[in-house]
Recover the amino acids of this structure.
């Protein structure tokens, strides 16, 4: 039985423009971000989406609400979709981050721990053992939309079967990845796709 996951990152915020990591800071979408999400909603206007889940943070919840509203649905808050704690990097400009830790590698869990951040090793096993099996059980054969954040989305994608290299990627605002799981077989339909913005 094929279950389809549509996972998307929230639209743009002012902090995205300033290249300031938000982590768990509750920053809302800006006007450009809302426009991005409207385009993302249009992309899925004719798709049958059974359920929408969202991070509780404003930027992801606004994103989910816009898209779910087009389908006559409401997004369900799921705490596991909240962004990772980004520790000492939250709110810092790129210049300040380089001054603090010039060789920082966001895919390196040892370095992340040094900066007081949550790690991929913290989250991927939890998502693999709890969130993903739970969704597959409750929504088997359905299409599930998840509204989340850059770093948490990377962890979710790996938990769904994408390669570890995804840790080092940067997912764009309103980017979508679609993964289908059918009796344990994983098909990646698209990844980090923003063609709806073109």
């Amino acid at each position: 039985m094929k279950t389809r996951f549509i996972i998307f990152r929230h639209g743009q915020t002012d902090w995205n423009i300033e290249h300031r990591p938000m982590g768990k800071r509750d920053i809302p979408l800006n006007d450009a971000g809302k426009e991005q999400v409207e385009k993302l909603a249009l992309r899925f206007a004719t798709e049958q989406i059974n359920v929408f889940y969202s991070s509780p943070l404003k930027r992801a919840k606004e994103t989910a609400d816009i898209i779910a509203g087009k389908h006559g649905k409401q997004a369900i808050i799921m705490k596991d979709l909240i962004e990772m704690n980004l520790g000492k990097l939250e709110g810092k400009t790129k210049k300040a981050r380089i001054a603090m830790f010039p060789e920082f590698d966001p895919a390196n869990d040892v370095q992340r721990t040094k900066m007081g951040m949550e790690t991929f090793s913290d989250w991927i096993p939890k998502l693999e053992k709890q969130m993903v099996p739970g969704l597959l059980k409750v929504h088997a054969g359905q299409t599930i939309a998840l509204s989340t954040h850059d770093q948490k989305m990377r962890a979710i994608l790996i938990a769904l079967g994408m390669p570890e290299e995804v840790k080092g990627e940067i997912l764009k605002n309103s980017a979508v990845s679609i993964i289908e799981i059918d009796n344990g077989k994983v098909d990646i339909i698209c990844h980090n796709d923003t063609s709806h913005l073109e």
Remarks:
- Residues 71 and 159 are 27 Å apart (CA to CA).
- The chain has one domain: 2-86+121-197.
- The longest helix spans residues 120-138.
